[in-house]
Amino acid sequence: MNGMNGMNGISTSSSHEESCHLIAVEAESRVFSGLRAAIAWQTLRSMLAEARLRLALVVLLSAVFWGLLYGLFFEAFSFLDSIHAEVISLLFNAFFSSLMVMLVFSTGILLYGNMYCSPETRLLLTLPVRAEAIFAHKFIDAMWFSSWGFILLGSPMLVAYGIVRGAPWTYYLLLLPFMVSFALIPASVGGILCMAVVAWLGRLRMHALAMLVAVAAAGAVWLGWSLLGSAVAGGVTTEWFDTVITRLSIAEQKFLPSWWLSSGLMEAARWRVQPEARFASLSEAVKFLAVLVSNGLLLYLLAWRLARSSYRLGFSQLVGEMPARRQRRIAWFDEALSAAGTARGRPMRLLLVKDLRLFRRDIAQWSQFAIFFGLLGLYFFNLRSFNYNLVYASMISFMNLAVAGLILSTFTTRFVYPMISLEGRRFWILGLLPVHRDQIVWSKFLFSFIGGLLPCCGLLCLSDSMLGISLGLVGVHEICGVVLCMGLSGIAVGLGAWMPDLREPSPAKIAAGFGGTLCLVLSSLFIVAVVTVAAVPTYLTMFSEVFGGKSPSPTGIFGWASGPLGTATSLLIVGVIGTIATFVPLQLGLRAFRRLEP
Amino acid sequence: MIEFDNVTRTYGPKPAVTDLSLRIPRGELFALLGPNGAGKTTTIKMLVGLLRPSRGAVRICGHDLVKETRAAHLHTGYVPDEPTLYDKLTGREFLWFIADMFGLPRSLAAEKIGREIDHFELADCADDLAESYSLGMRQRLVFAAALLHDPDVLVLDEPMVGLDPRTVRIVKDLLKARTRAGMTVFMSTHTLAMAEELADRVGIMVRGQLRFLGTVAELRDQVATESTSLENLYLEITTLQPVAASDTPVVRATGAI
Prior knowledge:
The structure holds two protein chains of two kinds.
Chain A: H1 13-19, H2 25-50, H3 52-83, H4 85-116, H5 119-124, H6 131-165, H7 169-201, H8 205-229, H9 238-248, H10 257-269, H11 275-319, H12 332-339, H13 346-361, H14 363-381, H15 390-416, H16 418-422, H17 427-432, H18 437-467, H19 471-498, H20 507-512, H21 514-547, H22 556-562, H23 564-595
Chain B: E1 2-11, E2 14-24, E3 29-33, H1 40-47, E4 55-60, E5 63-64, H2 69-74, E6 76-79, H3 91-101, H4 106-119, H5 135-147, E7 153-157, H6 165-180, E8 184-188, H7 192-198, E9 201-206, E10 209-214, H8 216-222, H9 230-238, E11 251-252
Parallel strand pairs in B: 3-8, 3-9, 6-7, 7-8, 10-11
Antiparallel strand pairs in B: 1-2, 1-4, 4-5, 9-10
Helix pairs in contact in B: 3-4, 3-5, 4-5
């Protein structure tokens, strides 16, 4: 037998001792680096060979998105720099401190999945490798996945700030080290929390996580309430602005890494000073960078040491847990949905019920859904604290429409887009069912569309009622809300079916991949298009009031556009955009899914 | 080589393995049998360090799996029931990764990788990405990886799942040759015919307790049944009604425990 030819090479125990040995920590690190490099190289090669168009599209759209953000931030910084330069520091601190909290949570959750639930760690833990080396390997993955958004959103903002401030080249050189060293701090804290919770809280970890989320949410509510709840009855005045500035200064704490980052960046960008002061500014910036790097490394070292003592223990405890017994509760809604309607539509309804059950039982999905829309609801609920004139009210109402759409798009990208990919491992079930493949795709679309409709349109109603805007504009917003839900669902489900990743079990990684990025970029562009077109008649009315004197009835193009005909035309265009955004990706997805060979 | 010293493992209040004491000497092929939920997987997980015993100790080549995990792993090769590979690595790259982790010198690693690729007839696909492998090819690659460093102890969890008859033959012959050369094999399986063919001793586990330990011949001697097939003997043992815990009818046929 050919396969047995090499039997002479069998070693004995003594030769085993001579041939293999425990490797040093540096060697372990090198092996893992080599592993990541090889995987990255093979992934890039596969993409270049099989998905060049997709890759080019993603790069192009990401560049467009980056450019749009850059333009937005450039205008904002130019405005602030001319009148309220001191506010920029405050905004940086507020932005980076909230980002820090989000990075703690996202890295912690990603590390939990990567370290305790992935098949790869089950392999690595049976090899003679240090537990802390496995942690380090998975930490790099988690840090990258949780921080790429920060790089994508943060880089145009910081580059725009540098341009507006006329920063020297050293500022741009220091940007990446600043961002990476800052991200290292919350990521390490997330890692420490994750391992500590798993090793020492065991079954109470979900309660601990819920408590942490509740504390974070309570903090956000308190901050929001203290900023907006005490708003002066006279609307947005200088006093109110001063109050907000004072309250926001809570984020300007010198012990917070966000302050080190903000201060370091602002020092690095300082160039319009005396030449002798420039070197001092640069030194200050480097000092802040050193503080960030040293603290980041210290926290990482603590996480590394914790991994040494607790990772295997935590893993063993988690593997040894009995799965919690779930009592079968008959959900009346599921039963009603299954039974309602005609027999022909029953397979679709059963697929919907299945997805609904999976959603309800996945705490990550519904908790994020509840937190995002809950916070948005809270913000909308506080809108009454201000008195607005009609122009401001309509402006804010359209901004709220965009915000509701953006939050919905993060949800559709994170949870709806991976739905088809996640069916990959269960495809043998769906493939054998007497349902057409199209029905599977349509059921995902309906699930997303109906699921998004209620919170989205409900929140828009709340926003409009708090702002006290006219019934006609409420109607426009509601129509836009429906179109947004439809289009965002179409993009997420269509792209998910068009470029499924049937091998990846982690929805976070599927969403963070190229398809997910494309989904997010397209969704954002779609929202911008819908909101812009829908807002045109309102803004033309505003312009006509500004430029048309005190004439109560504007004429010409303003008159036409701000009248019912203009509104109807804009809604028609919104409808066309929505139809294209819904059905083009869906058609692509349906066609690809019919041909899919899992 | 392998020692289970009064090992108990509970899942919450429920015992999965109770007071398991077992010694498997060098060069023995031991097959652990038992119905689903008997505690075989828990035993395997403790043996490869994924799970820690609630009480007692597990040792490989004298190294405690909790206190000296890496040293114990250095002597162990493990073939899980579900092969885990990196989809974006080729078979050869995966073997290099394993060789590096075991600290094999480069020249020796190259030689052993070539040897295992040859043993398991992976030459045609060794440079393809693992994502294109069938279940059988994946299982063969995992076997190759587990044997790469010539471990003193090989732990197999349902090793023949997904393998074609030719590869099954290759693996069987290889296990026989390796045990002759001094390797200890601990195998969990439902395939009774393979246990009968290969195992020096078998252990039959029921509800977390070792009901029988000995050779198949000793099992035949000790279980009063007219049939002599291992299948019937196994069914006889596993369907015995348990009596009080202290009187569990453990049949220890040989003195090696």
